[in-house]
Amino acid sequence: MIASADLDGDKEEATGRSLRVVVIDDEPVIAHTLGMILREKGYDTVSYTNPLTALKMVPDYQPHIVVTDVTMPQLSGIELAMRLNKLCPECRFLLFSGSAQPSDLLDASQRGYNFRLLRKPAHPIELLRELRALHA
């Protein structure tokens, strides 16, 4: 679950400046909450709860960043990120999970992929900092 917070108190925070971000999580509450938080901060955001649907739709959206859960029933977030990276090579990826470890990204890393991992529950301010770091 994503922690809630008053984000206006974070003086370091910059807005999304119309960056296109896709959020993918099989838990609708998380997908929609993250999308709402990002839209409030100025990101152009689309959320999906089915990774197979996202795989079909995301390339047309041409996001700057994809934020995806790691553990999903139809397709893992790691596999999804690897497939999307081939379709959207300029896109950056932030994977998040309550159970995944950095070692879970080892296979992807050995195959030349560079994904960041954020642990759930993630505070929204931490998520926003990760997004800024990915787009810096």
TrEMBL record:
Transmembrane segments: none annotated. GO terms for biological process: phosphorelay signal transduction system. SMART domains: REC. The keyword Metal-binding does not apply. SUPFAM superfamilies: CheY-like. The modification 4-aspartylphosphate is found at D69. This is Response regulator receiver domain-containing protein. Residues 20-135 form the Response regulatory domain. Signal peptide: none annotated. Keywords: Phosphoprotein.
